[in-house]
């Protein structure tokens, strides 16, 4: 597999754009229930904090702050674009689908209908050392979502 | 710049590319292609590769001599014991130690844990009187440095936490050198142990052992040397360095994983409480208590890593036959080539000593706008193996304002072409990631 299949253009662009980055500067939206989760990848030191806000059964906002490689930063950016506006159930479905693809070692193809831009991370599943990078913000979002619903 | 100790000052002729190409023939793993390119292995600081003679020594042991050691009267038991103890002598001799001062461990990490757990045992009520010199109590201090690998930090943190001792550290300056002025104020009458690395696995700095030992001696403190990055790469004479303890790992010096050693002055080892207890390390055992053998068996409970010890001795023989001083001279050249080359690439910040200053044959660096993980992936696509991350030195990276870096580390089987292929690839990294 070539490097360009791992680092698809959409990933390189999102790694720079970092949609949703800037949690520290933005207060949680009022009228929504918010949860927050911090995740760390101890092998490379990548870190991310994700806040998910839910109002009326919908994800009203996702914000994050992080430091890490292009895969982890792009993944958080793509997740932000996808998650905002989804129902809680839709977000859970998309997180499950993403996890299944990423952990499949290249065996489960990404469904662009479900994953949208996140389908670009399909190639990461062939790089065992990078799966955790791509999953970091999604694991944080899942945890934050659970906390928002429990709050 | 640190002066080379007199006993190490030799007019060694460095290896050259032609000789290195011959050396490479002894390393089957280096013959392969990765991602369509010849493998360029620049991660020996993490783990080194094995020459055929090492692989064959381990296989020969299993084919001809495999048996438990120090027990049994049969032929194989005698052969295995002889191979095991000969290996100890070979490795002890390689680092300037006597045979009974070299204890087999899994690796340097285990060696340091053996020390700290033994000191912890010495600190417990009921410890033998001769162990009192190792006992730590509130008010005592243990000193490490800011550049330590986690293996030479966390065991001391744990020991301090459990005994009430205070852990202090010698800071580094922005260039990555230990602040010796500060050290003189930190190492004092309360210091019981001074533990530091001989050569930094991140910065490449070679620390001034003599100055640090002098400080520790004036304070009456024990000296522990992490020789992981020195034993494989430069002539090492632990007795001449006058340290009390030292550790190193076999897999960083052409041997398999699972074998390393702890050196200790015999007088100290025989006063220390055991760490692991059980078979092979005892004199008389009753249902109530046991007596312990002197070093090294005192610290070698249970069936040992026999074939790995034999393989480590074969690795040491390979290094000795090649000439450790010549290897050191060659790696010094490669290290300078790395630093100079990296320094001429825009957006690269090299950690540690500047070009022209002493360093071992490795260089860690930051690439502006590109995370180390991505740098490593890019280099891998060109068949180049480097280490990325914090290299088990998070406090050091934090001190330098970084979370992760990329490290290229050389060994006797690397050519200048390896270094140049690496430098050419690094020069392309920022463009690829649009940094």
Detailed description of the structure:
The complex is a heterodimer of chains A (151) and B (435). Chain A has 151 residues and is of the alpha+beta class. Chain A has a single domain, classed as Sufe protein. Chain: A (Alpha-Beta Complex). Chain A is 46% helix and 19% strand. Chain A has six helices and three strands; from the N terminus they run H-H-E-E-E-H-H-H-H. Chain A has helices at residues 3-6, 9-17, 70-83, 88-102, 112-115, 128-150, and strands spanning 33-41, 46-55, 58-67. Chain A has a three-stranded antiparallel β-sheet with strand order 1-2-3, covered by helices on one side. The longest helix of chain A is centred in the last third of the chain and has 23 residues, at 128-150. In chain B, helix 4 packs parallel to helix 5 (154-163). Chain B has helices spanning 17-24, 52-65, 75-94, 108-123, 154-163, 180-186, 209-219, 238-241, 266-269, 306-322, 324-343, 372-381, 394-399, 416-432, and strands spanning 33-34, 37-38, 40-41, 102-105, 141-145, 166-170, 191-197, 222-226, 245-249, 260-264, 282-285, 290-292, 348-350, 362-367, 384-385, 387-389, 405-409. The radius of gyration of chain B is 22 Å and the shape is globular. The model of chain B is unreliable at 1-10 (pLDDT under 50). The chains are: A alpha+beta (151), B alpha/beta (435). The interface between A and B is medium-sized, with 20 and 18 residues. Chain A: Residues 23-42 are annotated as: Disordered.
């Amino acid at each position: 597999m070539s490097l360009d299949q791992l680092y698809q253009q959409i990933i390189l662009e999102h790694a720079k754009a970092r949609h949703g980055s800037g949690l520290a500067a933005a207060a949680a939206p009022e009228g929504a229930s918010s949860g927050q989760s911090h995740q760390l990848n101890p092998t490379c030191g990548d870190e991310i904090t994700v806040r998910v806000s839910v109002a009326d059964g919908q994800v009203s906002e996702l914000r994050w702050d992080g430091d890490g490689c292009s895969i982890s930063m792009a993944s958080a950016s793509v997740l932000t674009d996808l998650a905002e506006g989804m129902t809680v159930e839709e977000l859970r479905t998309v997180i499950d689908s993403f996890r299944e693809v990423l952990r499949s070692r290249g065996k489960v193809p990404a469904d662009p209908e479900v994953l949208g831009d996140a389908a670009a991370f399909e190639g990461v599943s062939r790089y065992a050392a990078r799966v955790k990078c791509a999953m970091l913000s999604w694991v944080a979002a899942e945890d934050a979502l659970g906390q928002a619903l429990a709050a | 710049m640190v002066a080379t100790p007199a006993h190490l000052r030799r007019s060694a002729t460095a290896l050259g590319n032609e000789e290195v190409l011959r050396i490479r023939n002894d390393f089957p793993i280096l013959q392969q292609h990765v991602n369509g390119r010849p493998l360029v292995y620049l991660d020996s600081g993490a783990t080194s590769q094995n020459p055929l003679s090492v692989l064959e020594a381990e296989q020969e042991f299993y084919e001809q001599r495999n048996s438990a050691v120090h027990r049994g009267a049969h032929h194989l038991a005698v052969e295995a014991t002889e191979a095991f103890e000969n290996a100890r002598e070979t490795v002890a001799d390689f680092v300037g130690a006597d045979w009974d001062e070299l204890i087999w461990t899994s690796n340097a990490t285990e060696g340091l844990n053996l020390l700290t757990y033994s000191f912890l045992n010495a600190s417990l009520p009921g410890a033998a009187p001769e162990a009192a010199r190792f006992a730590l109590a509130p008010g005592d201090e243990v000193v490490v440095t800011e550049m330590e690998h986690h293996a030479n930090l966390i065991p001391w943190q744990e020991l301090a936490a459990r005994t009430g001792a205070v852990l202090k550290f010698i800071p580094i300056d922005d260039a990555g050198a230990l602040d010796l002025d500060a050290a003189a104020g930190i190492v004092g009458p309360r210091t019981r142990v001074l533990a530091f690395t001989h050569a930094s696995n991140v910065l490449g700095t070679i620390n001034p052992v003599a100055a640090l030992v002098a400080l520790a001696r004036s304070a009456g403190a024990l000296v522990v040397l992490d020789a992981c990055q020195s034993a494989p790469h430069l002539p090492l004479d632990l007795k001449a360095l006058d340290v009390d303890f030292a550790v190193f790992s076999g897999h960083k010096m052409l041997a398999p994983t699972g074998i390393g050693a702890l050196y200790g002055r015999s007088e100290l080892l025989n006063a220390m409480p055991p760490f692991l207890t059980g078979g092979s390390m005892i004199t008389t055992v009753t249902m109530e208590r046991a007596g312990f053998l002197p070093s090294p068996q005192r610290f070698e409970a249970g069936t040992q890593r026999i074939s790995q010890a034999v393989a480590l001795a074969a690795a040491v023989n390979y290094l000795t036959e090649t000439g450790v001083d010549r290897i050191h001279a060659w790696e010094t050249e490669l290290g300078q080539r790395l630093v100079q080359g990296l320094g001429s690439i825009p957006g690269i910040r090299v950690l540690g000593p500047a070009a022209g200053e002493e360093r071992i044959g490795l260089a860690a660096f930051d690439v502006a706008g590109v995370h180390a993980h991505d740098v490593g992936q890019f280099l891998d696509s060109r068949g180049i193996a480097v280490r990325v991350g914090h290299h088990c030195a998070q406090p050091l990276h934090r001190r330098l304002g970084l979370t992760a870096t990329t490290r290229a580390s050389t060994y006797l089987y690397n050519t200048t072409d390896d270094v140049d292929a690496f430098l050419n690839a690094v020069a392309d990294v920022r463009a690829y990631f649009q940094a």
